[in-house]
Amino acid sequence: MNLLRKVWVMLIVTVVASCSSETYDLVSPDKDLKVVVQTTGDNSLGEIGFTVEYKGKCILPYAKLGLETDHQNFGGNLILKSVSKAQPIVDDYEMKTGKRSHCINRASERVYYLENDKEQTLEVTFRVYNDGVALKYKLNAVSDEEHIVNEFTTYAVPQGTKRWMQQYDPGYERFYPLSTDGKLASDPNSVLWGYPALIESQDSIFMLITEANIRRDHCGSFLYNGINRDHYQVRMADEKLAFRNSWESPWRLLIIGELSDIVESTLVTDVADPSKIEHTDWIIPGMAAWIYWANNHGTKNFEIVKEYIDLAVEMKWPYDLIDWEWDVMENGGNIQDAVKYALEKGIKPLLWYNSSTSWVGTGAPGPLFRLNEKESREKEYKWLGEMGVSGLKIDFFPDDGASTMNYYMDLLEDAVKYKLMINFHGATIPRGWQRTYPNMMSVEGVYGAEWYNNAPVLTNRAAGHNATLPFTRNVVGSMDYTPGTFSDSQHPHITSHGHELALPVIFESALQHMPDRPSTYCSLPKQVKSFLSVLPTAWDDTKLLSGYPGVEVIIARRKGNTWYIGGINGTNEERILRFTLDVLPNVGGKMTIFKDGTDDRSFSIEENILLSKRDKNIEVKSLPRGGFAAVIE
After folding, report:
1. Under DSSP, is residue 304 helix (H, G, I), strand (E, B) or coil?
2. Backbone phi and psi for residue 155, each to the nearest 5 degrees, phi listed first
């Protein structure tokens, strides 16, 4: 143990020892998780924090609590005034999108009332679920208008602990590199980190840090470790966040357990407000043809737009996304002609819009300024609904501030009247809105296949990146990565065909935009085309079969009685991908598997494999950066 680590451990031990004379525990329903809120115990003012234990092991050694406004300070000057009795929380709800259609969860909840040296009160609500911990703050204003100026919530992560964190970017389009020292190798001065952040707290025990249930006038937050590389403080996107009367924070979330617990968790929606939409039969997940990846400006050309509508017909996909610059379409038709052509072919059109809040200057693609104000937004939505458009992809949002969060909600809420589905692009990550607003079908918030257009970086990093996303970004909600690129865009890909076919199974997105050329999809083997033609995009259940961040991942997803499995190799070496079907309930019947062929641009397909009990342990040989997809019926 080096000197720095020894000092750090001594500091933690000192803090824990000094705060452990009086504790107020809260335990998950299955008894595996425990939160211990710690005070000085002698009724003197001081710091208040908490630790988290999982199956008797400390996996979060210390986390500080507190909040500050421009009129009240709750940090280092606190006593624990009182604690409510533990109350059971039980929730049961349905989802139109996501990894599980029927979600049931249970938790234990207590409210801790903290008092500062001016006898002002801060409420901290803790919930301990079987798969994680949630906490939120509530306080009353002491002035006509007050501002949140600081949050003291800080998570301690010891030196040497593995962590996969994304450098903070309001568009959330960065990688999740592995670090053990709280630094980014390519930018060692970076101290801002975005959600979700994955930490291997103990060997094979993980913690994913994020937030959920952003409400109107909330801003988002991120993590800051500029004071101490091993302490990650929650910082809000708005330096001053105004409120009147009272204020309640979003939930701060820690999803905890083995990797399967992380991947399969629905905690982000468990703590979110229930659906605000009464009738949701018009919200239909599905696959979509997408023009941009192979034809950046193809939407200007009516004839190319028709080719992608025809592709959707050929592949039996329900949607076609008509991307940016449709307002200047030419060569034989305009947007009305394109929408009419799609509807006549039985394809539901989706249209791209500029949010007109970020990129609106020289060269900014249109259409612009049609959604910003309620009157113009309602007019545009009405026009789209009458024309037969099914949804919008809205792009280029500026930040995680409260005004932007309010704009997201305006866009979602006003779309309901006209039965329009929404996909946010160049946007924040999901924070539970997929439950509250079921018409939010997907969000980009990821360094995805679109980047094969923009820079050469993804070519050599895609495999490891793809094998990290299921444990990080995609845990918190639908991810519009645009998977399934079998040919090359402006910059080549070196992942195998098996790898690419696995991605639409591994990456969950209620609208799954398929980006390659019509000629490419039409030239795939008929069995592969058939697989992509019937592949669901919203699931009844999800199971992690195997994996480790950056190395490999094998995920099984169920729709009805059919299981779909995707597995990828994130390394540059050949690899045997091993998994068992024992965790899949009532699995049996026949399996078809699409594996790597003799090279990375071919398939090896085995059909109608009869499964028996002795076949439940399966091995698949994978090329470097390879993979496979399978279906069990």
Report:
1. helix
2. -100, 130
Which residues contact residue 486 at a Cβ distance below 8 angstroms, ignoring those fewer than 6 apart? Answer: 497, 500, 516, 520, 521, 524, 601
CA atoms of 481 and 67, how far apart (whole Å): 36
| Residues 126-141 pLDDT 10s | 999 999 999 999 999 9
Token readout for 375 is 């009157």
Would you say 101 and 95 are in contact if contact means Cβ atoms under 8 Å apart?
yes
Least Cα distance to 629 among 557, 537, 561 occurs for 557
CA distances from 476 to 239, 329, 406 (A): 25, 36, 20
Q: Closest Cα to residue 82, out of 104, 127, 113, 59?
A: 113
Q: How far apart are CA 366 and CA 349, in angstroms?
A: 17
pLDDT surpassing 60 at residue 11? no
What does the pLDDT average to over 245-252? Answer: 98
Residue 435 main-chain phi, psi, to 5 deg: -90, -45
Instruction: Write out the two tokens for 32.
Output: 């595996």
510 and 442 Cβ atoms separated by less than 8 Å:
yes
Q: Write the CA distances from 205 to 156, 258, 446, 482, integer angstroms.
A: 16, 5, 25, 30
Q: Does the N-terminal peptide bond of residue 196 adopt cis geometry, omega within 30 degrees of 0?
A: yes
Long-range CB contacts (within 8 A, 24+) of 553-556: 553/467, 553/470, 553/471, 553/506, 554/579, 555/263, 555/470, 555/505, 555/506, 556/581, 556/584
445-455 pLDDT, tens per residue? 999 999 999 99
Closest of 306, 291, 304, 371 to residue 339, by C-alpha: 306
Contact yes or no for 425/139 (Cβ under 8 A): no
Query: If you count DSSP H runs as helices and E runs as strands, how many of each does the chain have, helices first?
Result: 12, 37
Q: Which residue has the tokens 């019937």?
A: 534
The model's confidence at residue 609, banded by pLDDT at 50, 70 and 90, is very high
Q: Tell me the pLDDT tens digit for each residue of 451-491.
A: 999 999 999 999 999 999 999 999 999 999 999 999 999 99
**Which residues does 470 contact at the CB level (< 8 Å), separation at least 6?**
263, 506, 507, 544, 547, 553, 555
Whether 43 shows a pLDDT value over 80: the answer reads no
Instruction: Tell me: pLDDT of 615 over 80.
Output: no
Query: Cα–Cα distance between 44 and 63 in angstroms, integer?
Result: 20
Question: Would you say 318 and 312 are in contact if contact means Cβ atoms under 8 Å apart?
Answer: yes
The yes-or-no verdict on residue 235 having pLDDT over 50 is yes
Q: What are phi and psi of 500, to 5 degrees?
A: -65, -35
* Tokens representing residue 517 in the block: 């050329």
8 A C-beta contact, residue 313 and residue 349? no
Rounded Cα–Cα distance for residues 166 and 120 (Å)? 37
The mean pLDDT of the chain is: 95
How are beta strands 57-64 and 154-156 bridged, if at all? antiparallel
Q: Is the dihedral of CA 266, 206, 512, 326 positive or negative?
A: positive
Place of tokens 């398939």: 603
pLDDT for the residue 616 = 76
The arithmetic mean of pLDDT across residues 561-578, rounded, is 98
Q: Name, in order, each residue with C-beta under 8 angstroms of 59's C-beta and a sequence gap of 6 or more.
A: 52, 53, 201, 202, 205, 207, 256
Task: For residue 525, say if its preceding peptide bond is cis, omega within 30 degrees of 0.
Answer: no
Please state, for a pLDDT cut of 70, what percent of the chain lies above it. 96
Alpha-carbon 225 to chain mean position: 22
